[in-house]
Amino acid sequence: MRLARVSEGGAPKALPVNGGPAARDSGERRIGQAIARCLADLDVRGEAAAPFDRAADVLNGLVPALYRGDADAARAAVLESDLPTREILDVTLRARLAVRGRRRGHRERAERERAADAALRALAEREDPARPEDIDRRRQIATVHRRLLTLLTDGVLTARPDGRLVHANRTAREALGLRLRDLRETPLKGLFAEKADAERLWKAVKADGIFRGREVDLRAATGRTFPVRLAAARAEGPDPRLLVVFRDLTEIRHIRSRLIETEKLGAMAKVAGSVAHEIRNPLNALFLNADLLEEELAESGKLPAAIEETLRVMREEIERLNEIIKNYLSLSKLGHANFERLELNEVVKEFAEEAEEMAGRRKVTLDLRLGRGETTVRGDRNMLRRVLVNLVQNALDVSPPGGRILLATRRLLHRVRLSVRDRGPGLATEALPHLFQPFFSTKERGTGLGLYLCREIVMAHVGEVALRSVKPCGAQATVLLPRWREPVGEESGGAVGAR
Known about the structure:
Elements: E1 2-6, E2 12-16, H1 26-45, H2 52-68, H3 71-79, H4 85-98, H5 106-127, H6 132-151, E3 155-159, E4 165-168, H7 170-176, H8 195-208, E5 210-219, E6 225-235, E7 241-248, H9 250-300, H10 305-332, E8 340-343, H11 344-361, E9 365-369, E10 376-379, H12 381-398, E11 404-411, E12 415-421, H13 450-460, E13 464-469, E14 475-482, E15 487-488, E16 497-498
Parallel strand pairs: 9-11
Antiparallel strand pairs: 1-2, 3-4, 3-7, 5-6, 6-7, 8-10, 11-12, 12-14, 13-14, 15-16
């Protein structure tokens, strides 16, 4: 019997099977045809990674056994092969399809099915001598484990003993900026920002088999470093692995620093609030007496230019101190906000009418553009006015004479946007990360509390605030506040929800 092998030109050529002479029996001819079809399919598609003749050896024993319905011979053909499991499975499935006898009787088809099932069971035993049902159970467990790794919010890495990465779950890949094809090219030690941390991990795992939780810094593929709490353990077995689990602490550290900052400034605001009340009265008296002194000197004709300039500077400094006091008092009142339903368009319109005079003195035009529809929010009227005062004052300070300031609102899907845009010189790139920090100011005589106070008020309203430069010139402050949702409760006094 001879079987066909596909040549480079696509035409089959004779290939001896078992070294015997050409057979004339029709059954053997069909077997040869089945083997030829399997080999041609494998060779054309390029799915047989092993040498062609090794696949032919398997088919020479497997196809006749399947054709005869000989389960023992089919099982032996699989177990005796040295092909990799993946190629064996491909060859077995193709051979089973090739000898499916649609014109045969029910008994012959059943025998061929049993022989094919025996070959597949032998393949499972060849991979793992455990029972097939145990293999299925382990495969199911492995599937569950893979899904759990995908759902975990902690990063999980698997590495070989030499430090080469083998696996990383989705959380780890996103945090480190890795792609699946990059894993084998990325050593585990290269993920640590400090070499000492990596050496400490390897030393602990080598000595005790475990590296207990410790805060370290990892480096992402982009070069960004971020803090994590990391633990590792050695998994023994035929193929040992190093398991690493880490949790990103970036947000936790941010919250921690915010709490410390809030506690410090909260204590300071309490003290400053009480002191501010005591300072305000003397300041008002100073301001009033400066005005009276200027009027008296002017009436008597004894108001030299130098004294007039001195009085002007005094009034400016008193106004500056008064502004600092207002900011401190606003900070002390953050915990006592009076939240109510507000139409933001009305609040902005009322403020714009009052601020128009102040802008006119600076020869700046205030352009008001109110969004359509309801712009209702849950807020404290005085606090939101304070945000408007600080943002518009900043815009006025950088606007040249004849400039324009745009004060606009817009209703979004779930929020309301308030924006203040000027046409000044814009913002320095190096100042952007520090704009909302307390006591940081880009102005020569700024207090450094205005934008910080805006951020605290907006956060108390569960909103967001941002400041950016815009082209071709100027800067824009954007405040996003949640839209008002009417509380909905059952008539029976059930739980109150949101519509």
